[in-house]
Structures are given as structure tokens and as C-alpha cells.
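One thing: could you explain this record?
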Amino acid sequence: MTFQNIFQDREYNKKLLRLTFPIALQNLLGAMVAAADALMLGKVNQQVMAAVSLATQVSFIHIIVLCAIANGIAVLGAQYWGKKDIRVLGDIFGLSVQCAVVASLAFFAGTYFFPEKLMLLFAHDENLVRIGADYLRIASWSYLISGISWCYLAIMRVTEHALCSAMISCGAVMMNIVLNAVFIFGLCGVPAMGAQGAALATVIARVLELGICIGICTGKTFIPLKIKMLLTFNYRLFLEFWKYSLPILGSFMLWGVGFTAYTALMGHMGEDAAAANAIAAVVRDLMCCLCNGLAGGAGILIGNELGAGNLERGKLYGDRTMILSFVVGLISTVVILATIPLVSSTLDMTPQAHRYMVGMFMILSFYMIGRCVCTVVINGIFSAGGDTLFDVYSLAVCMWGIALPCAFAGYYLGWHVLIVYACTCLDEVGKVPWVIWHHKRYKWVKNITHD
């Protein structure tokens, strides 16, 4: 397998680009709206920004659950779409909406009826709890809606409507940003609402997003959501769906809690370390948009081939995608190193924080190669064949068994900030040999559809 082989296969390149670009764009805009929220609320005052930041931790957990459901759609849906079994694909869509509605109802009930109790899990300051509770009570309505729209967008991606899915999502994001400005600051004659305005903007954007999804999916080439799908329960499909989705949920939980621990650890190492880590995290998340897009696109493309019974082609596409993941990782390395002068000249930081930031960027540039390879191969290639358990094992061993213990040991033993930061990056780099070995075993090359 050579680079020339990859770039000469026009069919592979065309299909992969058509899937990767929209998904990467969705990831990028999602990261941007979070940054815009923080910037606008920070203009109101620091307390409002902090309260909403804490309140959105509930949203983070909700998103993890929805990600597991959406990835379940991608794993099964891509293979059944490759098989051209539209009936089962409709059943998967209906089942995923049922699961999303049940989960979203639970989050709605908690955030609408008990927002103060939830806020007390994250803060004890009365003002933070009050502001965060006001935000959650309004934002709770968006949880009911977003669960369904996530399923719509996921089913669009696996049925060759990834660009349409991205355009809807991007439109909703842009609408959210505009409405944020209107309701937070009180533009266009609307009273300034602060944190409550941010919540209201989110609800309206989600309503519009779902409305567009429903309208577009009435088209002939789309799979519409019918009442019959919601009233039918397929127990066999339910077990099959969660066979692949539960490990994804578990891996997201392990990853989410682990990354939260990393952030808390750096925060306890001083203001300069926390500030430098915050900047490094923003750059890392932006650079990850491309590898997340490649993982999502490759997962659908390879899943289509495996579901259609083209196992050798699926295997070939998997090999090519793994090589591409290294290429994307190297590109990310170059970009991160190139941004150091730009970031340094833009931000007003203390000399110590600046030194930490430069060091973190150097470490991050190496880390991104491992992050890219692991994200694309584990979440894209392995998941395409239903191998969703590997991610749980790798996180349990590399993050929770190696990286976190090393980082905490470094903190308590008084190691240098950059050494502790490097420890938090050990998991992705350490997984690479294991990932390559598991890939070459080709146990992920399988058709998981049923007649």
C-alpha cells in the first residue's frame, strides 16, 4: 500500500471527501458556537459566564448519550444502507428516536423540575446556582427536541445526505449565534436576558433545526419518520442496536470523565498552567475537527462496503484510511507548530503562562499524530465492522491505567507542569502500536447485517 495507490483511487477519494467534509464542518461549527457563547456571556459578566459554563455540564452528559445513539445509527445504518435494506434502516431510525426520546425526557425532567439540585453538584455559590438554574429551566426544552433532530441528522449521513445534514446543522448553529447576540444583549428591541437569553436562543435554534429536518425528510430519497415506526418495538433489533451502542456510550463516559480530570488537574497547578492549558485545549479541539470528520466519513464508507458483502474492498478502504490518518496527523502537527507565533502575538499572557503554552503546543504537536490515528481507526474503521468494544478496552488501559495515574503522581510529587501535561497526552500516543496491531488482525472486517 503506497500513497500513490490512495490518491489514484478516484472513487474512494470522491466518496470519502463527500462524507468527511460535511462532518468535519459540523464539528468545527459546533466548537465555534461554544466559543461564541463563552465570549458573549463573558461580555455580560464573569459570573454569568461561569454559571452557564457549569450548567452546560448537564448538556455535556446529554450529548454523550445522544452521541452513543447517533453512532449506533452509523454502525448499523451504514451496513444496512450498503445492503440496500431500506426497511430495516427505517426500523433502526424509529428505534433510535424511541431511545433518544426516553433519554431526553429524563434530562428534561431533571433540568426543568430540579435545576437547583443539579447546579449544587457543580457549585455552592448562591448566585452561580441561581443563574445556572434559570438557564437550565429554559434550556431543558431543547433537550426534548435535540434528541430527535440528532437521529434525523445521523440517518441522513448514512443515507448519502451528509452534505444536507451538515447544512441543516450549520444553519442551526449560525441561527443560535445570531439569536444569542439578540437575546443576551437585548438587540432589535428585545430586552436583555443574559443567561436566560442564551438558553432561549438554543431552544429556538433546535426547534428550527428539527422543523427543517422533518420537512426535508419528506423527500423521495430520504427516510421519513412515521408514526408507525414510533409505535413498533423490535426486541431483536433493540438488542442488536445496544450491543454496539453501549460500548460507545461506555467509551464516551470514560473519555469524558478522564478529560475532565485532566482539566481539573491542570487547574490545580496554578493560574498560569490553567490559562496555558485552556489555550492548548481550544487549538486541540479545533484541530480534532478534521480527524473526527475523517473518522465519521470512513466509518460510513467502509460500513457500506462491508454491509454490501464487499469485505475485501472494505478491508482495502480500511488500510487506505489508516495511512490517511497518519497524513492528517502530520498535517495537524505542522499547523499547530505554525500557530505558535500567531497565538503568542495575539494573547496577553504572563511570561510564565506563555512559556507553558509554547511547551504545551510542542507536546500537542506530537500528540496529534496519535490522536488522529486512534480517532480515525477506532471510531471509524473498527466501528464500521461493529468492533466498538476495543475503544473501551484501550481507554481503560491507556487513559485510566497509564495516563491518569502518571499525571496524578506527577502532580503530587511536584513534577514540572509540562511533564504533567505530557503525562495527560500519553494515552493517545501509547495506543498507536496497539491500534495498528489490532487493525492488522482484521477482525473488524465483517458483515453484521441480518436477512
User: Anything to note?
Assistant: DSSP finds 16 helices and no strands in the chain. Residues 20-233 form one domain. The radius of gyration is 22 Å. The mean pLDDT is 90.
